[in-house]
Write a structure and sequence with these properties.
Elements (H helix, E strand, L loop, with lengths): L5 H22 L2 H20 L11 H18 L1 H8 L3 H7 L3 H13 L16 H16 L5 H24 L24 H25 L1
Helix pairs in contact: 1-2, 1-5, 1-6, 1-9, 3-4, 3-9, 5-7, 5-9, 6-7, 7-8, 8-9
């Protein structure tokens, strides 16, 4: 059993709850919030039981951490009702939601110090995702409050932030203990298989990914 400090665990639990709150504000839907809470609790239950830590299974248990949320995101993208839902989300709150990437990266650094993920996955390595978190409140202010920047700037920011998310997601996948592992063999990515960090690939990443897709769609549709 990995040794995880209470400070790090509590910090990530709060980070996940704040992420859910941000998305609730963006959707203004209790049904969506309840659905996310059910999924979050289910993932937590499996994480506590050690379901995601078991090795040598086909498919790898890491697959069940990331794939369900990502598949659900893309299923929304291709459905008419899903696109309607995306078009009615608050663009302001979707932008502010990305500030959550600041505490995520801070917690990830502590998880690295505890020897549970490789340095490649932190801002001390090749993870530049914290830039999106730091610039989110700035871009929000310049676009929605001061109105110095237009929606085109917000669109570009979303594309760049999406690229940063895909970058760290790729590193996380390639450093996990699966047949696809190509990186960090000396310290593989095992931290996300422990509770509460199971919420990162299963809950937070899909929400942030979806927020970018929804924002980009809204901006492109309004441009047309």
């Amino acid at each position: 059993m990995a040794e995880i400090s209470i400070f790090t665990s509590v910090g990530f639990i709060l980070t996940t709850l704040i992420t859910l709150w941000f998305f609730f504000k963006a959707s203004n839907s209790k049904k969506v919030l309840y659905g996310l809470l059910v999924w979050t609790i289910l993932v937590a239950f499996l994480g506590i039981l050690g379901f995601y830590q078991k090795e040598g299974t086909l498919p790898p248990r890491f697959f069940f951490l990331l794939a369900p949320g990502v598949i659900f995101v893309f299923s929304i993208l291709i459905s008419k009702q899903g696109r309607y839902f995306m078009d009615n989300l608050s663009l302001k709150w979707l932008t502010l939601l990305n500030t959550i990437r600041i505490p995520v990266e801070i917690v990830l650094y502590y998880v690295f110090l505890e020897g549970l993920i490789p340095g490649l996955m932190t801002f001390d390595g090749y993870n530049f995702d914290i830039i999106s978190g730091l610039t989110a409140p700035i871009i929000y202010y310049l676009v929605f409050v001061a109105k110095v920047l237009n929606k085109k700037a917000l669109l570009i920011w979303n594309f760049l932030s999406l690229a940063l998310l895909i970058n760290v997601l790729t590193i996380a996948i390639l450093s996990a203990q699966t047949p696809l592992q190509k990186l960090a063999f000396e310290q593989p990515n095992i931290g996300v298989t422990y509770f509460p960090f199971v919420w990162l690939p299963a809950v937070i990443v899909p929400i942030v990914l979806f927020s970018h897709f929804a924002s980009i769609r809204q901006l492109l549709v309004s441009k047309k």
